[in-house]
Backbone:
């Protein structure tokens, strides 16, 4: 039996992970499931999968969770510290699928027990790439990428020498607004930004796909995970979302990873790695698909891409500022306080205001420093929002 835990079990990635493990009930022994505040779903899955412990992130839903689990023998807990404790429970494989920087501390706790961490939470790498990789090395842990582009690159690199890689190309669908006239973008509503042409995902990453903040995070994620120079990383718009990434080698070959837009592929690859096992994803009919198309990303439409380049060039802890400012700007857009195109302005402003904190290259590589800069950035963005009225 493989002992597994899922952090962010009630979300889109968490539920796809559960879908896969439910198909092989005799293989997996579920240790911990954590969620936000959806106590009903968390309790149902914890009971179905006979988890040891279920944890919600907020006291608001703790009583409900406890009630739902009475008499089951499943422990209930709540709060960020309890989520990190759940990640410390011995497990062979842990899915990190909390959304946002909140996923970093439990991801770190998981690595410290030397486990295999399937990493969907891209914010961990953006904010703390060097710390995460170093922690994995120190504790003999393995990190496997779950973001579809990074899983695709990882697969294309199997058996290859990273020194022979000339470039990595990650694809972007272009999100909800790729074909909108530019001047209409500032009027985009929350509902319009929350629907994705190809992928079914959580709301936040769906909006980030429309703004390309998602791709911006993924450029940085590529740099941190594969240790490759930012000049060698490209993003290309590929509306069909069938090629997830390409790796270009020094002999001119481009290895592309092609597959249906279904996260269960990347999750399943990480679950079964280093083997491949049958996965319940659609098989592509290439003749029916007919054509795959590509276009260069337009930075006027997607300023987030330019900001990611600035962040990578600056290095230090600018990724922390970038991610925290992006999360705060996204909160403000979801709350109806700012327009869709105001998000990138707010993030650019935060990068300028926090360049001293983010630009530190000799800051201690620890979680406290990172979380302090994260908090400070959110505070500065809140002040900017207040000043806008
Ligand atoms: P989601 O919003 O559907 O789910 C997020 C999960 O985290 C839920 O269980 C939620 O309850 C929990 N959560 C939210 N805030 C929390 C907090 N403060 N503390 C503890 N738990 C909290 O998100 P998702 O789409 O499943 O994405 C999860 C992560 O995977 C994100 O980092 C995202 O960028 C990444 N990712 C998602 C996809 C996708 O297809 N959905 C693809 C690639 C990468
Ligand atoms: Mg992705």
Residues:
């Amino acid at each position: 039996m493989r002992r597994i835990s899922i952090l962010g079990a009630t979300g889109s990635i968490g539920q796809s992970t559960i879908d896969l493990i439910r198909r092989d009930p005799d293989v997996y022994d579920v240790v911990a499931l954590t969620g936000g505040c959806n106590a009903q779903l968390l309790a149902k899955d914890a009971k179905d999968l006979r988890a040891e412990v279920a944890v919600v992130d907020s006291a608001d839903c703790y009583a409900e969770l406890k009630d739902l689990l009475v008499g089951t023998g499943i422990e209930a807990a709540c709060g960020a510290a309890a989520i990190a404790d759940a990640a410390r429970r011995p497990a062979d494989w842990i899915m990190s699928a909390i959304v946002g920087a909140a996923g970093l501390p439990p991801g770190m706790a998981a690595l410290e027990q030397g486990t295999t961490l399937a990493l969907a939470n891209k914010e961990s790498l953006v904010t703390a790439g060097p710390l995460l990789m170093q922690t994995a090395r120190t504790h003999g842990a393995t990190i496997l990428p779950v973001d579809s582009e990074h899983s695709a690159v990882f697969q294309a690199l199997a058996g290859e020498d990273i020194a022979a890689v000339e470039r990595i190309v990650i694809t972007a669908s272009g999100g909800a607004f790729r074909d909108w006239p530019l001047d209409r973008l500032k009027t985009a509503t929350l509902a319009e930004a929350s629907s994705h042409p190809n992928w079914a995902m959580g709301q936040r990453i769906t909006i980030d796909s429309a703004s390309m903040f998602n791709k911006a995070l993924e450029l940085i994620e590529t740099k941190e995970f594969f240790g490759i120079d930012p000049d060698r990383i490209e993003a290309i718009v590929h509306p069909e979302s069938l090629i997830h990434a390409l790796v270009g080698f020094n002999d001119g070959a481009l290895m592309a990873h092609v597959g249906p837009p279904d996260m269960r592929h990347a999750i399943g690859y990480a679950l079964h790695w280093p083997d491949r096992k049958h996965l319940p994803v659609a098989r592509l009919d290439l003749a029916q698909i007919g054509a795959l198309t590509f276009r260069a990303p337009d930075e006027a439409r997607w300023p987030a891409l330019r900001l990611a380049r600035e962040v990578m060039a600056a290095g230090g802890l600018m990724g922390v500022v970038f991610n925290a400012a992006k999360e705060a700007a996204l909160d403000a857009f979801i709350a109806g306080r700012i327009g869709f195109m105001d998000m990138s302005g707010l993030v650019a402003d935060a990068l300028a205001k926090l360049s001293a904190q983010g630009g530190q290259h000799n800051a201690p590589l620890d979680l406290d420093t990172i979380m302090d800069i994260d908090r400070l950035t959110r505070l500065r963005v809140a002040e900017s929002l207040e000043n806008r009225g």
The mean pLDDT is 97. The CA atoms of residues 238 and 356 lie 37 Å apart. The radius of gyration is 20 Å. The chain has 17 helices and eleven strands.
